[in-house]
TrEMBL record:
Stretches assigned to the Enoyl reductase (ER) domain: 16-329
UniProt cross-references to Pfam families, sorted A to Z: ADH_N (PF08240), ADH_zinc_N (PF00107)
SUPFAM superfamilies: GroES-like (SSF50129), NAD(P)-binding Rossmann-fold domains (SSF51735)
GO MF term set: NADPH binding; oxidoreductase activity, acting on NAD(P)H
Organism: Leptonema illini DSM 21528
Name by which UniProt lists this protein: Alcohol dehydrogenase GroES domain protein
Gene3D superfamilies for the chain: Medium-chain alcohol dehydrogenases, catalytic domain, NAD(P)-binding Rossmann-like Domain
Keyword Protease listed: no
Key words of the record: NADP, Oxidoreductase
Length: 333
């Protein structure tokens, strides 16, 4: 039995601007078999959320809809089947269809819920899926490809820090690319050995030298635009660039000659599709494994927490400084 029938939630009325997203009363749908109702504790804000709000993401929902792709909370009801064992459990949760996490409650597929260890707080659990699982999945692709070193753009981000720490634990070199000198200084203070500023006049020369020296034949690119072509041009032949973001807002620039004469490969990575390929048991095991490292390699630094009623201030804060720590929404303050 569902304990509530309505809730407060942020509702996106049209794509393009968060201004068209009032916090208002939303009716909860009936639970279907395999679904659970989660009383949300915290929800995170990620670049994918901003892309969704603008209508530029790979998922478009019928509007009005509650945004938010990940969060954490407690399961309070279930729709039947094996999901009964989740009732009363604290979980990390994800949304790809229907209303999302920026609300007091969310109806979710039980398969997408990951029970939290006692040692993991609801704050950390709210950022368990998008960044940590993307970092683990892409780093595993790097390891399986037997590349000499990894190049990553947007290296000052939370996800960039996770990839860097995973590589450090395994003794693998990473070339970190950022956009500002202060980010170079920050990463070097954190122990990063190779950090380059993509706006520096000698950026391409330094990247080419390092990529050749370290045999950096794989890159993960969150920026796109002209930077994608710069990566391919500086990397050795037979290299692979994994594009997983478009922070530049521009199409990836690619010269046919680079693809042909270097036999470079450009691939996409989308966590949603990757997760769909995993079984419920595999996801549970992965989630359990990721939680072991939330205090170390996969830790998320939280900069500020806003109540749901201040969702617009939270989005503005995060948009202004996306690499300055995670901004969370307290869904039930």
């Amino acid at each position: 039995m569902i304990p509530v029938t309505t809730m407060q939630g942020a509702r996106l009325l049209r794509y393009g601007t968060p201004a068209d997203m009032p916090v208002q009363e939303v009716e909860l749908p009936a639970l279907q078999p395999g679904q659970v109702l989660i009383r949300m504790a915290y929800a995170s804000i990620n670049p994918s959320d901003l892309a969704f709000l603008s209508g530029q993401y790979g998922i478009k929902k019928k509007l009005p809809a509650v945004p938010g792709f990940e969060g954490s909370g407690t399961v309070v009801a279930y729709g039947g089947g094996w999901s009964r064992f989740l009732v009363g459990r604290r979980v990390a949760c994800a949304s790809s269809s229907g209303d999302g996490t920026w609300a007091q409650y969310m109806v979710a597929d039980a398969k997408g819920c990951i029970p939290l260890r006692r040692s993991v707080s609801l704050e950390q659990g709210s950022s368990l899926i998008v960044n940590p699982m993307t970092a683990v999945a892409m780093y595993n692709i790097f390891e399986k490809g037997r590349h000499g070193a990894l190049i990553q753009t947007a290296a000052a981000s939370a996800l960039g820090g996770m990839i860097r720490k995973l590589a450090a634990v395994n003794g693998r070199p990473v070339i970190n690319i950022v956009r500002r000198d202060e980010q170079v200084n920050t990463l070097e203070e954190q122990g990063a050995q190779y950090v380059l500023n993509s706006t520096a006049p000698d950026f391409e020369r330094k990247l080419a030298v390092l990529a050749r020296k370290l045999q950096a034949t794989m890159a993960v690119d969150a920026v796109g635009g002209a930077l994608t072509q710069q990566l391919v041009g500086c990397m050795p032949a037979f290299s692979t660039v994994l594009v997983y973001g478009g922070l530049s807002g521009e199409a990836c620039a690619l010269s046919p000659g680079l693809l042909i004469f270097k036999e470079a490969q450009i691939r996409g990575f989308w966590l949603s599709l990757w997760l769909q390929k995993q079984s419920a048991l595999s996801l549970m095991r992965l989630g359990w494994s990721v939680q072991k490292h939330l205090a170390g390699e996969l830790k998320t630094e939280v900069r500020r927490i806003y109540p749901l009623a201040e969702i617009h201030a939270a989005i503005e804060d995060y948009s202004r400084q996306m690499s300055g720590g995670k901004v969370l929404i307290n869904c039930n303050p």
